[in-house]
Task: inverse folding
DNA sequence: ATCCTATTTCGATCATTGTCGAAATAGGTG
DNA sequence: CACCTATTTCGACAATGATCGAAATAGGAT
């Protein structure tokens, strides 16, 4: 994955509103969620939601599919996996990333 | 991990310059890199670098240690691991994240 | 055609960010 | 102390971002 693209995706979920939004979609699974549902859940203006959604879509992390008048939004899991993979690769590229100790206490 | 904190860390590496910076530090391992080295590597103004560095430090992803007149910067691997863990957890929280197929072809 | 719901686009406003150069500070060395 | 290098802070500027309400569009239903 290109660094520029990774940065774009990280920035996309690097905003609390969008991260909440994205998390909701990720948890929704393949069923996805309609935009209206997301609006009710997040409690923000429709135009604001549309704006954030647009950015998530531009980054590739979210896709949309029309079902009559409602738009279903879905997390793009392969993209998510690639992004996590990028971070993990960078983490362990040349250096020692002692990922064995998973305790936060350290 | 709190969502707000995760968003902050994601935003920190959600900028191409900072992601390059962070990657450099991650690859440098525990040895870290002095600020001056980073400046030469990235080719940006010292004040700009300092600004980005500050944001990485605020997010917790990077630490600094003084060695005489030079400041050594290091990636904070545990934080990185927590962040990746957060993303992975969200990914597979309630839904099916078919992470078994790691091919990008899907 | 008319109307209704769902969603986006437009236009505006205010806050934040990225960038730089110049000046200030931190920590030594002669 | 005077000086030197390393780094940050200050002040400024243009660009981008977050947010909203109002108006426009998309896709059906009566």
Result:
């Amino acid at each position: 994955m290109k660094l520029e693209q990774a940065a774009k995706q990280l920035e996309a979920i690097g905003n609390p509103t969008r991260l909440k939004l994205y998390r909701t979609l990720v948890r929704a699974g393949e069923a996805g969620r309609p935009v209206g549902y997301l609006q009710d859940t997040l409690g923000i203006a429709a135009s604001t939601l549309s704006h954030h959604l647009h950015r998530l879509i531009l980054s590739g992390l979210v896709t949309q599919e029309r079902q009559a008048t409602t738009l279903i939004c879905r997390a793009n899991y392969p993209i998510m996996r690639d992004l996590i993979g990028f971070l993990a690769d960078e983490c362990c590229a040349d250096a020692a990333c002692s990922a064995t100790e998973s305790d936060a206490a350290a």
Remarks:
- Residues 77-92 of chain A form the longest helix (16 residues).
- Strands of chain A lie at 33-34, 62-67, 70-75.
- The interface with chain B takes residues 3-4, 6-16, 18-20, 22-23, 26-30, 77-78, 80-85, 87-88, 90-91, 93-99, 102, 104, 106 of chain A (CB under 8 Å).
- Residues 15, 17, 44-45, 47-48, 51-52, 55, 66, 68-70 of chain A lie near DNA strand D (CB under 10 Å from a C1').
